[in-house]
Structure formats: C-alpha cells, structure tokens
Amino acid sequence: MCFDTDSTPPIPAARQASSAAAPVTLTSTDGTSFAAFLARPERSTGVGVVVLPDARGLFHFYELLAERLAEQGHTALAIDYFGRTAGLSPRDDKFPFMEHIVRVTRQTIDADIAAAGDYLRGPNGGNCGTVFALGFCFGGRQAFFASASRFGFAGAVGFYGMPGFYPNGAAGPTQHAAELSAPILGLFGGADGGIPLKEIEGFDVGLNAAGVKHEFVIYPGAPHSFFDIKYAEHAEACSDAWNRVLAFVKQHGTPPKGES
What we know:
Strand 3, helix 1 and strand 4 form a beta-alpha-beta unit. The chain has one domain: Rossmann fold (3-Layer(aba) Sandwich). It has 7 helices and 8 strands; from the N terminus they run βββαβαααβαββαβα. The protein has an 8-stranded mixed sheet with strand order 1-2-4-3-5-6-7-8, sandwiched between helices. It is an alpha/beta fold.
C-alpha cells in the first residue's frame, strides 16, 4: 500500500488550464462495468493519461492527481481495479482492499487499462490523440506492463513499481521486457526497502536487451511512496519527479498545435 487515505499529491506546477472532473463508469473490454474518475481541461493538449492507483484501487489521492494533470492541459482518467468483485459503490477507509487485490488477474487489469485508453481516445474522453499510463506502487508495475504495444500508449510512467517477481511468484515487467515497446520513465526512492537496487538494475538490463527507450531516476534517501505532501523533507524530489513526468509527456506525446 502506498498512501494514507488523507495523503495529497505534492504538485507545485502552476495551473495552465481550467478543468472539470467527475466520476464515470467505464465498460471493460470483457464487458465488466468499473468505476473511474475523469478530469478534463477546458483547453486540451490532446494528451490523455490513464492513472493507475496502488493496491487500494480508486480513492481520493488519485482523483486529486487526475485534477492536477488536467490543470496542465492533459485529460486524466483514474481507474479502479475491483469492478468484478466490489462493484461500483463508493468505499470508505475501511474497505478491505486486500480481499480484492488478490482476485485481480493480469487479464482483467489489462482489459480495464485497454478500456480506459479507448475511452480517452473517444469523444467522451476528449478525443485524445496520444495516451500515457501513469501508475503508483502496484499501479506503477501495471504502468510498466502497459508499455506493451497492444495498449497503443505513447509512454508509461511508474512511481516505485516493483519490476521483478512478486513474493507470490508472479513474473513482473522485467520478465516480460521483450513484450514492451513504448518509452518508460521509472521513478524510485533510494531508501525503498521493498524495491532493491538489483531489481531496478535487472529491469534496466531487460529493457536494454529489448531495445525499449527508458530512463530510471532514483532519489537518494526517499522512501517508498515519497510522492506525498506529508514528506516535506522530500519536497525537492517530489518537485523533480513531477517535472519529469510533465517533460516526459511533452517529449513523447504532445501533438503539434492545431491537432489537439
């Protein structure tokens, strides 16, 4: 689990656009309905971002993050993973997410991510010309997987996503590096005991072998889930990480003026 339920994304960039946001219901590629939260800028860059939460699924931190992305001109869609087991009802802080996260599969996650990308490309999602994946912890791992060509994303950004094997033996993006293709930005905490440096190095080797463009940034002394306003001592790392996300999106996805 990444964030406390009262955490807030520390995003210092000045607002570039007015935006509107609201919950939406999406239909997965396998027909399942699942919850999401859409934030649309008044004037769009033409870029869409699928926001992939940590293991608790969709909650307020990621809704706020979607709104901050929209304020930069990017349409953002934060999704939930638990439409098949928890339905669409709102959840409080006592939601037993661990009972649900163990029931998701690679296939169901992929189906929901693909549906989110399709939604952003359609009229209700702003007709986005390019789409990215942006994830955190469990969602960061899913963002790395979403570099695969079948999603059609322009790039993938993962905050402290575990790239290697999970303790339950599930293979990670490192083991599937040959399937990945879209550029990847990985942001990690140097003091994150859950993601040893050797795991990041192994992912780097795998991506190099697969010819996937990528950049990894490790912030010395930063813990897991450092991207939180509560970590005032890591404000510089937070600011740098956010600016890198925006620069990555601009580099790999912003359509020329007049095409958004």
